Amino acid sequence: MIRAGFGTYGNLVYGSLGRALGGGPFSGSTTYTNAVTNGVPLFSFPSPFLPTGAAATQNAFGVNPNLTTPYTEQWNFTVERQLGSAALRVSYVGSHSAKLIYARNLNQPPPGTIPFSTNRRPYPIFNSITYYENGSNQRYNGLQAAIAKNYGNQLTFNAGYTWAKDLTDTQEGTFSGQTIQNQFDRRSEYANNLITPSHRVYGYAIWQIPVGQGHRLWNRSGIGEAALGGWQMAWNAMAQSGQFFTPSFSGFDPSNTNSIGGRPDVVSGASIQAIGTQSINNWFNAGAFKIPGCPDNNPVCAKPDNIGRFGNAGIAILRGHRIANVDFAVSKYFPIHERMRLQFRMNAVNVLNHPNFALPASNISSPATVGRITSSVAATFGTVAPREVDFQLRLEF
Description:
mainly beta; 13-stranded mixed β-sheet; two-stranded antiparallel ribbon; elongated
């Protein structure tokens, strides 16, 4: 069987807009940092503020008044075929999201070799002005394959695989997402979606244990059937490629825009693969990146050259440790009388207690920790990282 579909959907953003801006339509915040000189605080009561402002402290947030609703186009093409007692499905799935929301700092001056000063900002009395507007895009293309098979009435098996390529120039794409690095260059933000794995395989099975009345084993009623019959087991397994992440540096403003830190430069000809054996203490080659303005042979130098630009490393060019997980459950109903029964259930999340590692430290300005993985992470959203076993009794009537 061959089938296909296409649809266009709107993406409601005004609820998240109201929550992000505290109700709007205007919002702002101010940060003051006190200091003490010779025992005298800079700010003190009853007159805590200076009579005239010496530095920009006010942050502001704004939204394009002509903001439009983003939309997503989705399409798929699927071929399904029965092979013996198994059902096979192969699909191409694609989507395109347009007019997504992205944030930029309207008060960011253009990159250049002129050292930063408040006067270079378009609005010198403000610090940052985060402005949200339409303009970003996301494109997803995926190949999905799945197989399902039943073995009699006792065993159901299903497995699948997804290969995906998800590119976007706005990570998250909401009012809580990142502000782009350079407000004059949204193109350099186009990269892999941080939350979409390239490869994912899954499988699950449900087995009605063939013991008790009406089954091959212990086909009789009585106490034995009540204790041994009616048990059901379920397995759920998944594995996926590691999450994308981005290298970074800190401590310098090579673009002279008051953007301290950010994405580093890529060292020409250097491989990002770990030197030697890859391990949780040596996940990627930090020497493949340098603070912008530093020489290749001294990537974390103490005084970078004044190059007047941002780093050229892309977003999501590194990949973390692969993720794998197996869950297990067993359950049985115990009838009490016609309208009442008791269910026993045991759930084991990450039953093999397999460690799934978090992303490694990615700040090249910290040589002692960069490239090291120091914590674990849940395999899937909403689950715990280590093994967890729960026992339940449920009375139904």
